[in-house]
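Lecture notes, unit on protein representations.

Consider one protein chain, 269 amino acids long.
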Amino acid sequence: MIVAIGSLQREATGIISSSDYTPVEAPEDFAAYKPESSGSNQFPVIVLSGSGPERAARATQWAIGEFQPEAIISFGFCGATKDHARSGDIVIAARVLNLPGTPFEWSFVDDTNSLGPDRTMLLTARTAAEMSGLDFHHGTIVTVSRVPTTPGAKRWLGEAINATAVDTEAHTVAATATKAGVPWGVVASVLDTRDFNVPAIIDRLGSGPNERGLTAYIKHLSNSPQDLLDLIRLRRASTRASASITTFMTAFMEAHTALTRVEEPLDSQ
């Protein structure tokens, strides 16, 4: 069994609707879904932690204890830190790196906490991306404590530490899985491009996986009406990113089954 750990419902909606998933009881306000199909190797268990590294750590610990997975894949949306990445592109992590603290502290980069994925999971991810025909990038995904919303912050991450993308959960999931001895991989779908200025309402640090209601956006726009066009663009980008991650996950599970299948010995003549 593979467990796919994400943060928000909108990241997983396409995956859940593509098969017969049922909700399962989960602690706190995490969300978890298990495939009903008897061929459970075809679909991953999905656990959604909500936003931020602390929630991701607790959800990953719970998922490992609850499901005893053979492997974990961290998935979700990310911000691009290179100018060639577009919304909906897939980023496969060759390494994940954690940058704690605020952007003012990022100049002191310590790469000793850099982690590399399981070789089979990495090969499976690359195979899945090629099979699905998705545009993809292979590089470092850096995890920070808060969503970097400005082009300047994302550009710095791309140039100073050669990151391909940034998120707020991947390294935490990887570190927790490593500590438990569970193989892992990380894949993300680009939501915001490097030069896109993300409206502040997108930062949901510490909140659960469920969507914000319309009221929250109306209140935000009443104070920041200039964000309307950016929110519309972000909504369209979210649709592309979700479609890409759904396509990728289907191909990933097919590739994983093929790459890990034990061939039966040929009958003797």
